[in-house]
Amino acid sequence: MPARSVPPVVSVPDTPTRSNTQNGPASPPGTTGAAGGDRAAVALGQAALPMSAGQPLNPEAAVSVRGLRKSFGRKDILHGLDFDIPADSIVGLLGRNGAGKTTALSILSGQDPATDGEVSVLGRSPFEDATTASRLCFARENQKYPESFKASHVLRSAPWFFEHWDQGFAERLVRMFRLPVETKIQKLSRGQLSAVAIVVGLAARAPLTFFDEPYLGLDATARQLFYDVMLQDYLEHPRTIVMSTHLIDEAADLLEKVLVIDDGRILLDADADTARTAAFSLSGPAAAVGQVSAGWTALNERRIGGLLSVTLAGQPDPGLAAAAAEHHLEIGSVGLQDLVAAIGSRPTDALGGAAAETSKEQR
Ligand SMILES: Nc1ncnc2c1ncn2[C@@H]1O[C@H](COP(=O)(O)OP(=O)(O)OP(=O)(O)O)[C@@H](O)[C@H]1O
């Protein structure tokens, strides 16, 4: 049986990924002969797939991006992104190191020009636009400040930049994060620099806030404090918050929508609930896992000795559940972190290769 590369179900809408009729072995007990890839694509759903190109900008969205490209010299970093960020939501921009998250945020915040494409932020083109700049806050730990600046200077000057700045809230945050406001910023630890960014990002109450990995250097207690206080303040003062993060499971409960970016491409664009049910795991003896998962789209696999765990797109149907039970295989849920790791772990030009290899080895 020839191995076949499986198209990237998470980034190619409506593409059947495999058909048992064409490729697979006999259907496992309890399953039909219908294409598992179709099932998986349906289960991932349109809501989980990246937006298709060619749609007009969405005037209702806080951020609307079409065909966004960015190159540095000859190096292409963003390869034509299409996505919307709904107003009054908390959105996670998720992806591995070097995926292009900061590059995208720099463009959305107007600090960098796009190489190509359309970008609408709060209804305007953001690059070097003073109106947009006055309505957004880009909070990051490596923000540049004048050499002599202390956090107290930052907090005193913030009201000039942010119309909705809440000084009392800023002071409460300073106490919560134990920020030494009279120490020069240059002397602050990485965690304290993150705390400065968090205080500014939250107390600014900007209509649109970008947090770029806001937790760098923060201990677990401080990170939880940040998530709690952000959610509380967001509920009291709804606004649009976009947070790039690697610590996905920590932040998962906050997120209403997730955008997964990898190698400058959007791999997943989904509301968080859809993403949480976009995949499941199947584990047990490798041969049985291979047999039962044949026809399903494998996003990732882990092998330890003779045991295999595969992450499969979609949700288990009764046929798969029965086959898994018969072979004493374990079906598990896949959290957001694992889903992102699974879809981001495959080479972009070989998505599905792991699945094909898995199936091949079984035959
Ligand atoms: N000014 C620049 N010149 C050349 N290449 C750049 C520049 N800025 C970023 N890059 C490259 O663009 C790619 C994406 O970087 P970016 O910082 O956007 O990734 P990221 O997803 O934020 O990563 P991380 O999670 O590690 O912060 C990387 O390969 C990086 O080396």
Automatic annotation (TrEMBL):
Annotated ABC transporter domain residues: 63-288
Q: Which GO MF terms are attached to this record?
A: ATP binding
Specify residue ranges for compositional bias: Low complexity. 1-17
Coiled-coil stretches, from where to where? none
Question: This chain belongs to which protein, by name?
Answer: ABC transporter ATP-binding protein
CDD domains reported for this sequence: ABC_DR_subfamily_A (cd03230)
- A Pfam entry, by short name: ABC_tran
Q: Taxonomically, which superkingdom?
A: Bacteria
| Ranges for region Disordered | 1-37
PANTHER family to which the protein is assigned, alphabetical: ABC TRANSPORTER, ATP-BINDING PROTEIN, SKFA PEPTIDE EXPORT ATP-BINDING PROTEIN SKFE
- Keyword list, A-Z: ATP-binding, Nucleotide-binding
